[in-house]
Design goal:
The complex is a heterodimer. Chain A contains 6 helices and 3 strands, in the order H-E-E-E-H-H-H-H-H. Chain A is an alpha+beta fold. Chain A has a 3-stranded antiparallel β-sheet. The N and C termini of chain A lie far apart (49 Å). In chain A, 53% of the residues are buried. Chain B is built from 16 helices and 12 strands. In chain B, strands 2-8-7-6-5-3-4 form a 7-stranded mixed β-sheet, sandwiched between helices. Classes of the chains: A alpha+beta, B alpha/beta. At the A-B interface, helix 1, strand 1, strand 2, strand 3 and helix 2 of A face helix 11 and helix 16 of B.
Chain lengths: 125, 408
């Protein structure tokens, strides 16, 4: 049901883990629904310098988390805000239809992390 | 441990409640009925007679498994059709007596969705709750009976969690009250003794492919005194109870599978129970934060169902498959919906724990070495997924209120 690229990201996820003192943290999903994604970002010169994720969820949830971290690393915050869940699924070569709505939230987690970063920096300035 | 998908260290099929392979002995008795004894069992000539002998001999063997009379066996296309026939026929025939049906919250969809469909036709259905083990109480059945109750349908061995329901007692109660009792015994057949006279049932569904017979064939036991209104109409096959030219090769294979299952049951059931308990104990001992789902002792001998907290079922299944192990889960992701298993939820499991359920169902090919392989492979899979899974934060994530998706 999953293509090879999804399986590759599922079995060999990129950027898994946690960082110390992240600049922004985003969490989406709910364990009740079976998917939770938490993303941490480090920001330098308005770009995403580093990104880490931890995900509780199915194959699609883990693969999209991994994929999105590859996609946004090095992007400016504005560029990263433009990366959509749909684009993540497309970059993976597609997901089964039933997974598009329930387990395709990784871009949302990145957006939340950027918002978190922006709200913190807005306060400190 | 890494593995090449096409060359796993071992292949261990642990999904025998989904389906089983056809036994060699079964296949060999079926083969002549495809091209040689290919006749229509209703025909008068020698070809027809050969097929008829095959069908009737098989009927005797199915009856032998159930301790029934051959005339009480109606062949169907499988367990789902047998359930549909039992429920829809009774509803139609007894409509004038009443419109109330009692069933449980942990039925197979073949019963559950049929009941829901009957509700749309004006029947009232009581879905009895179960306890933490997935067990329905006899007193709860008694409490639900009212004037106008025409049928009680309770699953025998629960297909997901393996809990064996108190059918004998429910049967005594039903008999006393003059209400028909149906049981879906698809998972129990060939695993535990299943004699219809001891069970006090009027209708009982079984399926061939769960006991090493071919797919596409099953049967409904119908007690001699009980009438059946065919749900598939046409010819006078199966004594007017189910129309359609008999699936002769399927029936012959099914009969043989039932005969072998009954003959080997005492030994095989003990062997499976011991493997089952070894697997359950191994998982609970080796992996922290795991719980057994279903009753610890009143349980099908081949069923293992555990919830592995903080990980999601599909992720475990994909990893097990990579290592050559086939299992299943009650997680939403594997059910094709957003809701996890209705059975686990009915037992009171929180959604997030139900998402992490893992069902492994043993079969005649499985050995102690298979169990040890699973116990070697599963713990590192779980640790890896837990490390990846925001594990520590999830431990207190019950406070997380933000929902997502279109949960229905």
């Amino acid at each position: 049901m999953y293509n090879d690229k999804v399986m590759d990201h599922f079995f060999n996820p990129r950027n898994v883990g946690e960082m110390e003192n992240p600049d922004g943290v985003g969490q989406v999903g709910n364990p009740v629904c079976g998917d939770v994604m938490r993303v941490q970002i480090r920001v330098k010169d308005n770009r995403i310098e580093d990104v880490k994720f931890k995900t509780f969820g199915c194959g699609a949830a883990i693969a999209t988390s991994s994929m999105v971290t590859e996609m946004v690393k090095g992007l400016t915050l504005d560029e990263a805000m433009e990366v959509s869940n749909k684009a993540v699924a497309e970059a993976l070569g597609g997901l089964p239809p039933q997974k598009m709505h329930c387990s395709n939230l990784a871009a949302d987690a990145i957006h939340e992390a950027i918002k978190d970063y922006r709200s913190k920096t807005a306060v400190s300035h | 441990m890494t593995s090449d998908y096409n060359h796993p260290a071992r292949r261990v099929y642990l999904d025998n409640s989904s389906t089983t392979p056809v036994r060699a002995e079964v296949l060999s008795v079926m083969l002549p009925f495809f091209a040689q004894a290919f006749g229509n069992a209703s025909s008068i000539h020698r070809w027809g007679k050969e097929a008829r002998v095959g069908v009737e001999t098989a009927r005797e063997k199915v009856a032998y498994l159930l301790g029934a009379e051959p005339s009480e066996i109606v062949f169907t296309s499988g367990g789902t059709e047998a359930d549909n026939l039992a429920l829809r026929s009774t509803a139609r025939l007894l409509k004038s007596k009443g419109n109330h049906i009692i069933t449980t919250a942990v039925e197979h969809h073949a019963v559950l969705h049929t009941c829901q469909s009957l509700e749309k036709e004006g029947f009232e259905v009581t879905y009895l709750p179960v306890d933490e083990y997935g067990m329905v109480g006899v007193e709860s059945v008694a409490g639900a009976i009212r004037p106008g109750t025409i049928l009680i349908s309770v699953i025998h061995g629960q297909n997901e969690v393996g809990t064996i329901q108190p059918i004998e007692e429910i049967g005594r109660l039903a008999k006393e009250k003059g209400i028909l009792l149906h049981t879906d015994a698809v998972q129990s057949a060939g695993k535990v003794p299943l004699k219809v006279r001891d069970l006090n049932v009027d209708l009982l569904s079984i399926s061939s492919h769960k006991l090493y017979g071919p797919k596409g064939i099953g049967a409904l036991y119908v007690r001699k005194s009980v009438k059946i209104a065919p749900q598939i109409t046409g010819g006078a096959h199966e004594r007017g109870r189910r129309a359609g030219t008999e699936n002769v090769a399927g029936i012959v294979g099914f009969g043989e599978a039932c005969y072998l299952a009954e003959r080997e049951l005492p030994e095989e059931s003990l062997r499976l129970t011991s493997l089952r308990d070894r697997l359950i104990k191994g998982i609970l001992d080796k992996i922290p934060d795991t719980v057994l789902n279903g009753h610890p002792s009143r349980r099908l001998p081949h069923n293992v169902n555990v919830s592995i907290k903080y990980v999601e079922g599909e992720s475990i299944l994909l990893n097990l498959d990579l290592m050559g192990i086939g299992a299943s889960s009650g997680s939403a992701c594997t059910s094709g919906s957003l809701e996890p298993s209705h059975v686990l939820l009915a037992m009171g499991l929180p959604h997030e724990v139900a998402h992490g359920s893992l069902r492994m169902t043993l079969g005649r090919m499985n050995t102690a070495e298979d169990i040890d392989y699973v116990l070697e492979v599963l713990p590192p899979i779980v640790s890896r997924l837990r490390e990846m899974s925001a594990f520590s934060s999830l431990r207190d994530s019950r406070a997380c209120e933000e929902g997502h998706g279109n949960v229905q």
